[in-house]
DNA sequence: GCCGTTTTCGGCCCGACTGTTTTCAGTCG
């Protein structure tokens, strides 16, 4: 028996009870019990007080005892026999929850998506009390969409949709200001929809203009406070817009940024002080509503510092506020160590990239084009590298306010050798080693390649260490704990590649690396000026792993970078 | 079902929108 099994049992019990139309506080109690175990960092063996945890009571405790003693839960077995398995997918149909599903099963014997479809076509559903013609049609339409509707979208897919919507919002003069909220603002790897807070005095006008401007597959809800639509794009994605006044903005963006658990924790905190949080402000016992100029002020109202969106997760972040002072922030970033130019597969010249980094206020930067093995990317031969070094050195003479270092993103070849020899590497200031080929090798072969790079005294950093593309491919499956050990042993940096396709290393590994004392560089891997902005997503993602300023090398001052990395 | 230096009963985070009703339940985020 392990903790995961207990958690999954609670979740299943909750699901079945929901389908039976049980009291939703009862359902929530089982979900909460699952959450309590999930949030506890200890393993099952270490939890001798499991039955006395807050949130575990008589009913949930009996399930745990049952599982520990018999390896299965009588309650779950009973529920599985009572509730047809075919009902579970019905919860995926928008507009159908436990109560209505229970009602349909009771009244006309619905036990699967197929029987519901048939009942809709035979117009039996609209005869059930509480259901009407409209609901029947909606259910039928949703059943047809069930297969095509995608659950989660990768952050790079969401980013494109967010940009598109922002362009439309900017074009509407009745909008004073707006901001994306929701899981995208928290820099989640995946989101199920996008949320926007829109400040306007004329919600009706804005709603109509949005309905006219956006590519629509469906309108889910359209009121004066909110607009909810399904966008007709490559992938059909839902978008929610909340219309608020300027005074309500701070409370609204906090509320709709979430996470849900963060909000619940904040509301419990408010309640303990006799206050009530809603998306419109904070209400005291006299019904007086306070609004705020900023989220900072909102948090200050509860004696809390500003909690960055990226760390708003389980609610436990509120117990870690003393760590926020050291947390990496965008304004700490002084440099970017990984970018490409027209010398290989980048879109802009070295000078253009330098100008763009100066505009960002960076004090130093590294040019890192691909190497000869990567022919599709026009990788540099040794001769071209030396030419490039000369050009960079001369450009560096020109610019007094930014230090430009000569680097490379060198391929680690499939046979576990490096693309450049040591002599050439010694002429460079900063050497990145990367895998771009033969992802399907065994883990042993991959680790052999990475070890070669790690051992080389000229290599400074391993880029995108796992090669993953979020939601598309897992990468080359390295043994990351081992990689972190090597980074520690040989004093190498590991990258957090900030490109939203990658975000590599992932959160769990960043946490591991920081704990091991390994330094991280957050880099954009920009192939165009515009992509330098990915630093913002990268830093947010780093915050999810609670990376400190000290851990992130590109937050270090130039002098320290030269002393500890370039001249080491 | 869980919980309690206000409570062992009556709450549980809070509000918008839809569709069904004719004042509100259900669903959703």
UniProtKB/TrEMBL annotation:
Annotated Gene3D superfamilies: 5' to 3' exonuclease, C-terminal subdomain, Beta Polymerase, domain 2, DNA polymerase beta, N-terminal domain-like, DNA polymerase, thumb domain, Metal-dependent hydrolases
Coiled coil: none
Keyword hit for Transferase: yes
Known cofactor(s): Mg(2+)
Pfam family, one: HHH_8
Name of the gene: polX
Protein's organism: Sporosarcina soli
Species classification: Bacteria, Bacillati, Bacillota, Bacilli, Bacillales
Xref: SMART domains: HhH1, POLIIIAc, POLXc
Enzyme class of the recorded protein, top EC level: transferase
GO MF, any single term: exonuclease activity
Domain Helix-hairpin-helix DNA-binding motif class stretches: 48-67, 88-107, 123-142
PANTHER family registered for this protein in UniProt: PHOSPHATASE YCDX-RELATED
UniProt entry tagged with the keyword Hydrolase: yes
Record's keyword terms, sorted: DNA replication, DNA synthesis, DNA-directed DNA polymerase, Exonuclease, Hydrolase, Nuclease, Nucleotidyltransferase, Transferase
Residues annotated as domain Polymerase/histidinol phosphatase N-terminal: 335-414
Top-rank lineage group of the source organism: Bacteria
Catalysed transformations (reactions): DNA(n) + a 2'-deoxyribonucleoside 5'-triphosphate = DNA(n+1) + diphosphate
EC numbers, comma separated: 2.7.7.7
Protein name: DNA-directed DNA polymerase
InterPro entries: DNA-dir_DNA_pol_X, DNA_pol_B_palm_palm, DNA_pol_lamdba_lyase_dom_sf, DNA_Pol_thumb_sf, DNA_pol_X, HHH_MUS81, Hlx-hairpin-Hlx_DNA-bd_motif, NT_sf
Annotated ranges, domain DNA-directed DNA polymerase X: 1-313
